[in-house]
Design brief:
Arc Repressor Mutant, subunit A, Elongation Factor Tu (Ef-tu), domain 3, six-stranded antiparallel barrel, three-stranded antiparallel sheet
Length: about 210
């Protein structure tokens, strides 16, 4: 029910700015009791999907970035249903990155898992792509790469998503604790994609999710 409630709040403009809201008003939109509507708001707040500010005249709510991403996931799922497999294509431009993915592929604890889970050992470098739209994959597409400890340090989990770039097998790698925005991804492959495809910063590139 969280998506339904978020959707109603977005229709009311809560994804753009704070809106004044009462539990009874939300209840009328959702077709529930005010008590149920209040519980749903509390749950969304607990999960970080919205922020609330109680005022003397009621409350004001706004959908957070996390809540907006949750709605985008729902949107992408419906696009896949109605528009078919073509939605598995992501497009963007080659750009410089922060090097998070390159850091991951340099650790032997990760490289062994990449070979086992992806079928290749990554080239020691990543291709950074700034996408036209945020990268919001389906949960079932994620290939989990486990964290580990090495020399007293803890290395966290990351997720990989298999893709092909101009027919070359590759994968988007995303650390669980990433500072990257949703429209910036790092791609690993068994070869240097920049060299193999003659890519430079600013070049357009297309990848197909598998």
């Amino acid at each position: 029910m969280e998506v339904e409630t978020l959707k109603r709040l977005a229709v009311m403009g809560a994804h753009r700015s704070q809106i004044s809201l009462s539990s009874s008003l939300l209840a009328s939109w959702l077709g529930t009791s005010p008590q149920t509507a209040a519980r749903r708001l509390s749950l969304l707040e607990e999960r970080g999907y919205l922020v609330r500010k109680v005022t003397s005249s009621g409350q004001r709510v706004k959908i957070t970035e996390k809540g907006w991403r949750r709605l985008q996931v729902e949107y992408q799922e419906y696009r896949r249903i109605f528009e078919g497999e073509s939605m598995a294509v992501v497009r963007g431009k080659v750009t410089a990155g922060l090097g998070e993915g390159q850091y991951y592929i340099s650790r032997e604890g990760y490289r062994a898992q990449f070979l086992q889970s992806l079928g290749f050992v990554p080239f020691p470098g990543t291709l950074n792509i700034k996408l036209d739209e945020p990268f919001i994959p389906m949960a079932w597409q994620a290939i989990k790469i486990g964290g580990f400890q090495d020399e007293g340090r803890t290395f966290g989990d990351c997720s990989c998503y298999k893709i092909r770039v101009n027919g070359i097998e590759a994968a988007i790698v995303r650390p669980e604790r990433s500072s990257y925005p949703a429209n910036l991804v790092e791609v690993i492959a068994p070869v240097s994609l920049r060299e193999a495809l003659g890519l430079a910063n600013g070049d357009e590139v297309e990848a197909t999710l598998e």
